[in-house]
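In this supplementary section we document a worked example of the pipeline. Step one takes a protein sequence of length 493 as its only input; no multiple sequence alignment statistics are reported here. Step two produces a three-dimensional model, which step three serialises into structure tokens for compact storage. The input and output of this example are shown verbatim.
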Amino acid sequence: MSTSVPVAPRSGAPSQGKASETPVTVTDPAQVKRAVKAAALGNAMEWFDFGVYSYIAVTLGKVFFPSDNPTAQTLSTFGAFAAAFLVRPIGGMVFGPLGDRIGRQKILAITMIMMATATFCIGLIPSFATIGMWAPALLFLARLVQGFSTGGEYGGASTFIAEYSPDKKRGFLGSWLEFGTLVGYICGAGLVTLMTALLSTPDLESWGWRIPFLVAGPMGIIGLYLRMKLEETPAFAAQAAEDKKLAKQAAKLATREKKAAPKPAKPSLKETVVGQWRTMLLCIGLVLVFNVTNYMLLSYMPTYLTEQLKYDPTHGLLVILCVMAFMMCVQPFAGLLSDRFGRRPIIAIGCAGFLVLSVPALLLIRQGSLLAIIPGLLVLGLLQVCFTAAMPSTLPALFPTKTRYGSLSIGFNVSVSLFGGTTPLFVAALIGWTGNLMMPAYYMMAAAVIGGIAVFFMSESARRPLPGSPPAVETEEEAEQLRAAASAAATSA
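The serialised model returned by step three reads:
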């Protein structure tokens, strides 16, 4: 288990009061690994669920939204996809502050249960041909439950890893969260591709589409077991201990003055949102470029290849699968680079790349041959890794420990709901209205400009303690070095 020890002056050195007594967290490597695995697995399950929905969108359109117009079917299916994002901010407002009050681990277990149950239920919904309008209504309801639970997932998982990680490795360890995302996408894409290749179209539309959703049940049980085995993060435990200490002091003071003991102070929603509004805007801008490009590449591109470029569905999914495998291989190394060179340079490279290379990459993709499509998608995938590797450690470092889970969950989900999750729907609609197949590139370029502005205003957080938390190191030797540095600073002062 991680421990906090005071940074005290050496024997005989003059103490400068509280400045020389700053605590240091010495992390437990085994506990850190368990925390990363549990958070990444939960994220993998979440994006397996969302990914499957994207990859099988054409089939779902035929099952739940019968129509003679394929474009209308696709828009209806992505409308249900976007519906989940409308309630994500509500989920963030509920689960985020709760995570700051009762603990990260408990909330992450609850969101896991809700997500797995909602996804499993989608696999049980009868088709439109069987129960009529009740079918799309039940699909929308299940998607709303998914979105509500997801509102507390990413903010909690990234906070969990960030608060467990030593400062010098936060980027590397945080990158495994999005590694889990890619694992979920690959598993979802692989399963849909396998079914598309092995099953006939009638079989796929009658019962085959249900299989990926029903898999969520056992996956959720495994993820829940791992998360229930974890302890609370050192940062939250230290904050809770400090709050308890202050509450006791306030209660003693109230007793002496013969007043009612005050209730323990907990961060309010106003403090979580209004008190962090500048940082919240920064978070929204960073999440915008992160998620618009992410959903464009991993969720919309399979449909773009099939619907707009008339590419074979199975081949299109296999190409995206290869791109995601490539991203997985690069992801941990990009996380290491963010620790060495900083978060700002890595994210700035991603923004500049999407601004300059989105049009050339999409022109390559539109050529239609594998020799053109694969390089175009690989360029977009490599640029996306700049975000997936750096954001999980960047976003939690924007907020103090006391409101981190709540502020991050709300800011993240507001941005995802308005801009990220609606990307497939908006781009499909823009192409339908204008007939311009370059709309995906223009959309990513606009997001890159906003992301670049956010990067300009953000502070560097690599190799630095989280706001409101003490320095976190891996060994007692590193802690001793900090003690010596603090002692020297106190002596010189």
